[in-house]
Amino acid sequence: MSHAPLELRAVERRYKTEAGALEVLRGADLTLQPGEIVALVAPSGTGKSTLLHVTGLLERPDGGEVFIEGAAAGTLGDDARTAIRRNTIGFVYQFHHLLPEFTAEENVMLPQLAAGTPRAAARARAAEILGQFGLAARLQHRPGKLSGGEQQRVAIARALANAPRVLLADEPTGNLDTATANLVFDELLREARGRGLACLIATHNPELAARMDRKVTLREGRVVPG
Ligand SMILES: Nc1ncnc2c1ncn2[C@@H]1O[C@H](COP(=O)(O)OP(=O)(O)OP(=O)(O)O)[C@@H](O)[C@H]1O
Fold first, then answer.
1. Residue closest by Cα to atom 2 of ligand 1
2. pTM for the complete prediction?
3. Degrees (nearest 5) of the Cα angle 27, 192, 159?
């Protein structure tokens, strides 16, 4: 039996604050099927980033579990979570977070090198993915020499570099003007669908959300249909 690429079961996450514990996730359940693209649309401060960070194995849940392709992953130790994250999860942030001293090509090579891919293969794959985003002529440019849309395309290419099964994104086009955001989002959806990736994409933009397969929101720390 094949497993869902991503499943959250009864995930809890709380933060200590001066006013006491802040219960952000209170039993969040969510299952993404292969190729399913889900919009996470919820008011500011309700826990979208927290949910993405726990789902992306960046933070450990305080209760419940995150399963990646059927295997319990969220509550493993830091090194094990890092290894799973590197090989199975791609993450795109609102701001590109590219390394400024490296070229576009090198930025897409880096996660592959970290995962043990030989340099020549990593370079070839970086060029291939960047080409899919129309950046074949920009491989040797540093981020500072790229437009905002190009920077974000490189960031998406980097997220796809290790052929993840799950793509997580936090307002991936939120820093772009409307026209550029639409173009970049089209390419993101096209590449995600082409690869059959399960995606969870947080956005405040209802038009972008409407183009995904379904919408969820957060209510009192739980994931509910949006
Ligand atoms: N490390 C932390 N320590 C303490 N509180 C935190 C921490 N991270 C987040 N919070 C709090 O948890 C709540 C949820 O934050 P989170 O960033 O997940 O919300 P969000 O829905 O992503 O918001 P936004 O849309 O504004 O980015 C907020 O009240 C926030 O202040």
1. 15
2. 0.94
3. 80
